[in-house]
Design brief:
single chain; Outer membrane efflux proteins (OEP); four-stranded antiparallel β-sheet; 61% helix; rod-shaped; disordered N terminus
Length: 431
Amino acid sequence: MTIFCRLCLPIAWVACSASIAFAAPMQEQTEPSQSAAQSSHQVDHFDELKVNPGLRLSEVLEKAYARAPMQASLQSRDVMVLAKSRVANAMLPSAPAVSVIHQNDVIGSGRGERDWQAELELPVWQQKQRDNRLKVAEAMQLSTTAGRQSLKLQVAGQLREALWNIAANDNNLSLAVNKLQVAQKLQSDVGKRYRAGELARTDAMLAEQEVLRVEKEKVRAEAEVMHARHRYYLLTGLRELPGSYQEQQSTLEDYSQSPIWLEAQSKLGLAETERDLAQVESRENMRVLLNMRNSKGAFDTTDNNSVGVQVRVPFGNAASAAPIRAAAEMVVGNALTEREAMRFELEAAMHEAEHNLSVSRAELSIATKQYEIAKESFTLAQKAFQLGETDLVSLMRVQAQTFEAERAFTTRQIQVQWDIARYNQTVGVLP
């Protein structure tokens, strides 16, 4: 009989062509102990996920990306980009200032002297200051865009893991259900032969124990399926699975186009442009002051009006500029450290992705051959038991080996596709 992972995995290749004739109809038992062994042990908790053939993996990714907690951080970076751009395109490098000065001799000589003065202080752009500010704004925009792509790739990695975790657990549950059906059929056959006097009571008890053990495995497998489904729901907010989520292996051979790597590079570029700007702005801007003055002299009733210009040129001070430049250098150093650390991580991930995929494919080839042999062995062992040529323990041993071969075969099938998804994740390909 062909075994399919039916609950959530819509992928036909996961179907296990198990000739272990495992899902034979259950026969009614007459002994109370056998009836109790076959009772279904259900768990109340149930997370339902339905397969939607029209739902694409890319659409699920967009749903998960929109729910990502890091969205708030990216939105705040948009505000910073806008602010940097406005500052770079402003008419003045900093805010102008207006001051008003009044002086009289009411408290003093009392001769009626009055003086009013209004000043407008205008900062002047330093050489390359505006250009460097524009470069910082552009670099921050690029960094923010790279951050969005990096976040989407990270979410894609979480989605890939969630989906293939569901596939693996669905496969385990399907195997457990199939295993239970085989154990129950064997219990039924043993029970009949025990009542006919062909087998001992110990054989009937052994078959019953096997049913109970497999039922326990099935309960645990159901729990793991529920956990995997709930994690998928938390990530995507959906109660639906895409119709297919197999991926073709990317032709890329390294991580140079990975958004995660590009983000690390963009952060370093931003830090370097901010350092260049800090070199300029560590010096104070020159300022031009325009003033208008109205004054009256002592015992003089005539207003005297005048206009003046003042230029304020600050001298450079290496001591006061040093902390600003040092802080900018520290940011560059941190960004460079982060990029190199990311390089090591991606190098290791790239090697593991390539190697794991190669190993999984080799293991699948071996597991396929083992499974074919195990199925044939089980068929022969079943016939031998029915003819009385072997005992129950020997049959159950062969049966256990066959189940293990089936598990290895179906698990390797899923693992190959899972490793392809991980390879695509490492080189930075979105689903």
